[in-house]
Design a protein that fits this description.
With about 450 residues, the protein is an alpha/beta fold. It is built from eleven helices and 18 strands.
Length: about 450
């Protein structure tokens, strides 16, 4: 048994020998809502949900349609594009009002199976959909998340790669049908951000960089799957996201590329480290840093998290593209040493990740939000919202990264505990500044309505 086998054996042993739910605490070191109920005696099921599956593209489409019909009040299915071979990419939406954006209700997304042979994310997202739907109005956590969040799940970003993949193969099916690695296929706007960060003059801009007119030098032909994600990012005011992979156990956060070798910090470095730790610490063992959880060839990851560039550079990756060009904060999750585990082992991954998936989703509810209106009370979109944190000497400064208000004039800004000065700017309107807005730990402040007058 090689090192990979040991990991599987240990995980299997610790889970399947648990006799009662007191051991379930292992699953939930940091739980914001309430702990998962579980019964390991029926490992291959979770309250009637079957967990050992490898789901074909055809089966996936049929499941999504079935769930859409069975839970029609809280679901919507939107095609967002097609793969090279014409498989439709479906955004499966779960919310109390799934067809429209509700002001002050944040939009969240999970993306699975970007690398076609990394199947853990794909299968546990199927479980997550089913768990949320079955437990809505029955379980407090499920009900809270569905009622207060618009949840988008793209189970597979790379169905063509998946169709090529086979058990226990490290590379086959990773790329799309044109042999392109989709996580290297986004325009690398990190390069533009580095150009604009001038620490000496105190100037910077790290957001919505496609609007600066500056173009990354590595522009390549975007694949249909990549284009679908780029369009999707413009369709909804996403706030938080994770992109599910396999091959290691770690939660990876931007930037994925450095202007020099080593760590490459965003203005939101502390926030990103927190978000990654919410996942790793709620996973059954990702954050414990013991050797048993390291995959062959990996270094140790303290707290189960890593800055992307500090691990290895990924130019053209999806998480940085989210941060560089939209309001959305995305991290990348590596959920196991084996990229394509055997069907009989799939149940383990659900139990390892269940609380983490829920807690990370719940982290969309931290920071500040509010609605910005004009003199007539109409919502103002595209207002630039910038925060300044006086307690820390961020480098680059947090004020480098602004977010913009959505169609209804509502905005969301993820923040850690602290006092912030918040500036609202829109051309032809008088700038509004709100000072010392206090944010408590793991909480969201809904600000009083912000009125903006014409100049
Ligand atoms: Zn991957």
């Amino acid at each position: 048994m090689g090192p990979l086998g040991v990991v599987v054996f240990l995980s299997l042993f610790s889970l399947s020998t648990s006799e009662n739910c007191s051991d379930c605490k292992l699953l939930s070191k940091t739980v914001y809502i309430n702990a998962t109920d579980c019964d390991y005696l029926k490992c291959t099921e979770d309250e009637g949900m079957k967990l050992n599956h490898h789901t074909s593209n055809e089966e996936l489409e049929a499941y999504l349609k079935h769930w859409r019909t069975s839970y029609n009040e809280i679901t919507a299915v939107k095609p967002i594009g097609k793969s090279v071979k014409g498989v439709i990419l479906y955004d499966f939406i779960i919310s109390d009002n799934p067809e429209q954006h509700e002001p002050l209700e944040p939009e969240f997304k999970y993306v699975g199976n970007m690398h076609g042979n990394e199947v853990v994310g794909r299968e546990i997202l199927i479980n997550l959909i089913e768990w949320l739907l079955r437990n809505y109005k029955k379980n407090e956590t499920a009900t809270y998340l569905v009622d207060n969040t618009r949840i988008h799940i793209l189970v597979s970003m790379n169905p063509d790669g998946y169709a090529e993949s086979v058990d226990n193969n490290w590379l086959k099916g990773r790329e799309n049908a044109n042999k392109v690695d989709l996580n290297r296929n986004f325009p690398n706007y990190d390069e533009v951000a580095y150009k604009l960060i001038d620490l000496v003059k105190g100037q910077c801009r790290t957001h919505h960089l496609q609007e600066t007119g500056l173009v990354p030098s590595n522009l390549q032909k975007e694949q249909p799957e990549t284009k679908a994600i780029m369009r999707w990012l413009k369709m909804y005011p996403f706030v938080l996201s994770a992109n599910l992979h396999g091959g290691s156990f770690v939660a990876n956060y931007p930037y994925d590329v450095g202007s020099y070798r080593g760590k490459s910090k965003t203005p939101d470095d502390e926030l990103f480290r927190h978000l990654a730790f919410v996942y790793s610490s709620s996973h059954s063992f990702m954050s414990d840093g013991s050797k048993a959880n390291q995959c062959a060839g990996d270094k140790a990851f303290p707290d189960g998290i890593t800055n992307g560039a500090d691990w290895y550079p990924v130019p053209g990756g999806m998480q940085d593209y989210n941060y560089d060009t939209s309001n959305c904060y995305e991290i990348t999750l590596e959920l196991g040493c084996i990229k394509y585990p055997k069907k009989k082992d799939m149940w383990m991954y659900w139990y390892q990740n269940k609380d983490a998936l829920l807690n990370f989703m719940n982290a969309v509810h931290i920071g500040i939000k509010g609605i910005i209106v004009d003199e007539n009370g109409n919502g103002l979109p595209d207002v630039k919202v910038t925060v300044e944190d006086n307690r820390y000497d961020h480098n680059p400064a947090m004020s480098c990264h602004s977010v913009y208000s959505a169609e209804d004039g509502d905005f969301f800004r993820l923040l850690l505990e602290g006092d912030y000065d918040v500036t609202f700017e829109l051309p032809f309107y008088k700038t509004v500044v709100k000072r010392k807005v206090n944010v408590k730990s793991n909480d969201v402040v809904t600000m009083d309505t912000i009125f903006m007058e014409r100049e």
